[in-house]
Specification:
By secondary structure, the chain is mainly alpha-helical. It has 3 helices and no strands. It has helices at about 1-30, 55-110, 115-125. Helix 1 (about 1-30) runs parallel beside helix 2 (about 55-110) and helix 2 runs antiparallel to helix 3 (about 115-125).
Length: about 130
């Protein structure tokens, strides 16, 4: 019976690092990696991630993989922010000339006489989404 208890204790002790790996993998699998800014702060503890053992090698490799995924997520977030800034800047830069065109169109409409085709053209300018 004493040997059975000692064996059980030894098995539980040696399985502890594997349980830690499983916990980390489970936590990462539940993260919303597809949504916005995600921090991958979860790692296998150093005690279970030293390449001296088979389980330690897996823990070490899992931590390296998590570092790689974390870097990729940060790069994606930075890229998305650059795209958003570009769209905002482009939108702002386009508003100024479009506003000037609209103003000149209204001024011409108030001060000039146009043929029916000219009136239709001015009406199209006014009806456009930017006008």
């Amino acid at each position: 019976m004493l040997i059975g208890l000692a064996g059980t204790a030894l098995i539980r002790r040696t399985m502890k690092p594997l349980e830690q790996l499983s916990e980390v993998a489970t936590k990462v699998s539940r993260l919303p990696l597809d949504a916005g800014e995600v921090a991958l702060g979860v790692r296998v503890p150093t005690s279970a991630a030293h390449p001296g053992t088979e389980v330690g090698s897996v823990g070490y490799a899992l931590n390296k993989m998590l570092d790689n995924v974390s870097n990729a997520l940060e790069a994606r977030q930075e890229s998305e922010m650059k795209v958003r800034q570009f769209v905002a800047d482009a939108s702002h830069e386009l508003r100024t000339p479009l506003t000037a065109i609209r103003g000149y169109t209204e001024l011409m409409r108030m001060t000039e006489h146009f043929t029916p085709d000219g009136e239709r053209s001015l009406a199209l300018c006014k009806a456009s989404p930017s006008g």
